[in-house]
Amino acid sequence: MKNAMSTILNLILILLLSGGCEKNNSDETDIDSRSSKIYESCCGAEPVEYNIIDEGYIYIPNVFTPNEDGVNDRFRPYFGGSVKGFGTMTIYNMEKDTILYILDGELINNVENIEDFGWNGNLNLLHDYERKYVGGFKYEILFWGFQKDGSSLHYKVEGSACAIQCGPDAVIFKSKEGCFYPEQRNEKDFLDKTKAVTEKDCFE
Questions:
Q1: d(CA 68, CA 127)
Q2: Rounded (to 5) percent helix, strand, coil in the chain
Q3: Strand order in the sheet with 78-80
Q4: What is the model's pLDDT at position 76?
Q5: Residue 114 has pLDDT above 70, yes or no
Q6: With b meaning 16 or more CB within 10 Å and e meaning fewer, what string describes 15-51?
Q7: What is the DSSP string of 148-170?
Q8: CB neighbourhood size of 202 (10 A)
Q9: CB 158 within 8 A of CB 47
Q10: Residue 129: which H helix or E strand, with range?
């Protein structure tokens, strides 16, 4: 009886150990699956170009990489023509129940070094200045300008974009379609889909 009990305990131990090994192997090889869940709402679902009346236009990137390498580090809109600026830009989480960031556009519309402005991905409003937001988010931006007849133009744009945190999970963006970055704009701030993305180390 003692030998039989010992045999049963050994079998249970072997089954438990083999089950644990399978789980560990799965965790190590599941980077693509995990990445898909983190970034499933990114790219391709929302327009990034908006044509406003009287030759106004807006380009809003749908991805950015806030890793402070000097490339695509900040999220903000680009515009021209009859669109002269924006009042506020509000960033929400995907459920739109939490504000992540607010930018007062009135403060930056006429500054010279505008590249220093925009959301850097930090959770400032949550008093967590070190941690970066990861994945999809929603935005609401209030633009202003003038029509040809001199009357004022006010236009609200709502959409979604994505904060990419560089690392193993970001590798899916090497082949993910429909992603347009801040640097993919020409000298007039129109989107140039043929312009190469110079972000390299982020997607290795």
A1: 20
A2: 25, 30, 40
A3: 49-52, 56-59, 78-80
A4: 93
A5: no
A6: eeeeeeeeeeeeeeeeeeeebeebbebbbeebebebe
A7: TTS-EEEEEEEEEEEEPPPSGGG
A8: 19
A9: no
A10: strand 128-132
